[in-house]
Design goal:
With 292 residues, the protein is α+β, with helices and mostly antiparallel strands. The protein has helices at 3-16, 21-28, 32-39, 47-57, 61-66, 75-93, 98-126, 146-164, 245-252, 255-263, 269-285; strands at residues 174-188, 192-207, 210-228, 231-238, 290-291. Strand 1 (174-188) and strand 2 (192-207) form a beta hairpin. The termini are far apart.
Length: 292
């Protein structure tokens, strides 16, 4: 185990976060001298400090013990290497001391546990299922396949049909919709799905050879989609209500995606959906000018 490399890694991450040794020490309940000792390669964090230190630096335990950020394909190899290095390092310090045997055992169990959790989530990602523990720093987007496209098409058709059935105030008025899907949760294989998405819908009509917008909405949805007689159909649509929006958000959306859903109005999601809807309207009416 390379103490100097780990120390430089800690120092680099601390400086990236623009915090002093004293500020980092205060966050995890130690002295700045201990942080200085780590960064100078003269020691390693106590086992009880590894987890809080990693949380403050936004890294995994595996990355801390490796002294570098790890790519997905390096994770398992470095995990095994770190387990062996941890055992060897503890043995060299004091083979006869019981405390170090306990430390080795705890780290070993911790690493195995983390590794197991990691591979459980990777398998669930590959099967298009929501993660159980964390995305481990990866951007998680379920793989798109034909079945998903059919489900999303069914949702868009449902949204547009619902809007088109509303009262229209202009004879050539048409509804358009776009959405960002956060999670497709398969509840029953090829039969029942829950889809969590941000939906933007807008109505357009033509007047004096210009496109005009006549209202719209932008709000997160939970869709229940079932395969009935070989076709995907939306059988339920749920949105948070105005009177209890925050509480409904917690009830409707899984914790793993809730922050992404809540950030949609400010992270560019809605802006992209607006552009998409405008392009749909331009193509439908064969008009490029939109009157704001």
């Amino acid at each position: 185990m390379n103490q100097e490399k780990i120390g430089k890694f800690i120092s680099k991450l601390r400086k990236e976060k623009n915090i002093t040794q004293q500020e980092l020490a205060n966050k995890i309940g130690i002295t700045d001298r201990a942080v200085s000792k780590w960064e100078n390669g003269r020691g390693l964090p106590d086992i009880s400090l590894i987890q809080p230190l990693c949380e403050e630096l936004d890294i995994s335990i595996n990355e801390l013990l490796s002294g570098e950020r790890l790519k997905k394909e390096e994770y398992q190899e470095k995990l095994e290497e770190n387990i062996l290095n941890t055992i060897n390092y503890s043995s060299k310090i004091n083979k006869s001391h019981k405390k170090f045997k306990i430390i080795v055992a705890v780290i070993f169990v911790l690493l195995i546990t983390i590794s197991t959790m990691f591979f459980i989530d990777v398998r669930r990602m590959n099967k298009n299922k929501p993660v159980l523990f964390s995305t481990w720093g990866f951007y998680y987007t379920p793989a798109l396949n034909i079945e998903e496209k059919e489900i999303y098409s069914a949702i868009k058709k449902y949204i547009v049909d619902e809007s088109d059935n509303d009262i229209k105030y202009h004879k050539n008025e048409k509804s358009f919709a776009s959405m960002r899907v956060f999670l497709l949760d398969e509840k029953e294989s090829n039969k029942l799905y829950y889809v969590y998405a941000w939906v933007l819908g807008e109505d357009y009509y033509v007047e004096n050879n210009k496109l005009r917008k006549d209202g719209g909405y932008s709000i997160p949805h939970k869709f229940k989609v079932e395969k009935i007689n070989g076709e995907y159909k939306v059988t339920e649509s749920i949105i948070p209500s105005d009177g209890s929006y925050e509480e409904d958000m917690k009830k409707i959306f899984p914790k793993s995606i809730r922050k992404d859903v809540q950030d949609s109005p400010i992270d560019g999601t809605v802006d992209k959906l607006i552009i998409d809807v405008e392009e749909q309207a331009k193509l439908y009416f064969h008009i490029n000018d939109i009157e704001e």
